[in-house]
Amino acid sequence: MIAIAKARPTLESAPLRGDHGAIDIDAANHALREATPAEIVTWALSLDKRAIATTSFGVNAAATLHAVVEQAPSLPVIWVDTGFNLRDTYVQADAVTEQLGLNLHVYSPLITAERISAKLGGIPLPEDADNHRWFTEKVKLEPFRRAIADFRPQLWFSGIRAEETDHRRSLDIVSLDHRGIIKVAPFFYWSDSEIDSYMLEHGLVSCQHYFDPTKVSSGRECGLHTSV
């Protein structure tokens, strides 16, 4: 008996199912597994959803921004500026915004960094659970909720990658958050070295010194992808 191989879904056949245009997440991820970031962005934009991209202006954040705005130059890019970034992050943010012509929208905490530092005595460590939770809410989660309320996105381009945290390894290129927003990560399966090569190939500016005060150390979540 001859075994018949199951056909791989194509990018054209994968996106939708049902009467309400719901995304078939499993089919989409299967079809996109070997796709390039550009192909993933093209697929996502073809869904014709209200879209945003987010950035931290972290080490190689420009890669995702480049892949997205190359096809959607006017797409809103959301940056939550906690007020606690290092100088290099602000320098890179200005350089990448100019280089890529970003339609950048900056959301900042309603309370100043100085006031927060005075209240907490500096940036709280994750071990100081109550203060760290309060800090994360004020500098990251609340500003991002304002951005979501303002733009009401149905599609969210993100720079998350599988190798970054345990939580992200549980996701995929396409996922659905609790609000029903379709999250798309064009570089999800890329390694650090592959991202570095992409940055070099396209002459993109990298942030050499980056620190996220809501994570403190690598391998942690800031809350944007787990708590908002």
From TrEMBL:
GO terms for cellular component: cytoplasm. GO terms for biological process: sulfate assimilation, phosphoadenylyl sulfate reduction by phosphoadenylyl-sulfate reductase (thioredoxin). Pfam families: PAPS_reduct. Residues 52-210 form the Phosphoadenosine phosphosulphate reductase domain. It is an enzyme of class 1 (oxidoreductase). Signal peptide: none annotated. One of its GO terms (molecular function) is phosphoadenylyl-sulfate reductase (thioredoxin) activity. Keywords: Oxidoreductase. InterPro entries: PAPS_reduct_dom (IPR002500), Rossmann-like_a/b/a_fold (IPR014729). Its EC number is 1.8.4.8. Belongs to the PAPS reductase family. CysH subfamily. This is Phosphoadenosine phosphosulfate reductase. It comes from Luminiphilus syltensis NOR5-1B.
